């Protein structure tokens, strides 16, 4: 099932929150919310938007970095990788 880019985190679901967030972020990238080589919202913003712990947000971002969807520039932020294959569901 394709994650809803406008979905919320379901803390009672069998899928861990970090995987749900990774799916939501990947769906938002596919939808065009963030363009290649452009920053996604900061960790602090995502923590507030989704009501998750910073460690959970970092883990979701790490999943997408490992999959080649995002890349991190130290002291600049997390960016959408150009020409990346956007997965339908992240694998942890």
Automatic annotation (TrEMBL):
Keyword Nucleotide-binding: no
Xref: PROSITE patterns: HTH_GNTR
Keyword Magnesium among record annotations: no
Key words, A-Z: DNA-binding, Transcription, Transcription regulation
InterPro entries assigned: Bact_HTH_transcr_reg, Tscrpt_reg_HTH_GntR, WH-like_DNA-bd_sf, WH_DNA-bd_sf
SUPFAM superfamilies: Winged helix' DNA-binding domain
One Pfam family per UniProt: GntR
Domain HTH gntR-type: 15-83
Name of the protein in its database record: HTH gntR-type domain-containing protein
Originating species: Micromonospora lutea
């Amino acid at each position: 099932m394709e994650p809803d880019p406008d979905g919320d985190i379901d803390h009672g679901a069998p899928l861990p929150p970090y995987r749900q967030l990774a799916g939501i972020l990947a769906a938002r990238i596919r939808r065009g919310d963030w363009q290649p080589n452009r920053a996604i919202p900061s960790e602090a913003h995502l923590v507030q938007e989704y009501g998750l712990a910073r460690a959970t947000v970092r883990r979701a971002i790490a999943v997408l970095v490992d999959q080649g969807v995002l890349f991190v520039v130290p002291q600049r932020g997390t960016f959408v990788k150009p020409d990346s294959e956007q997965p339908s569901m992240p694998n942890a």
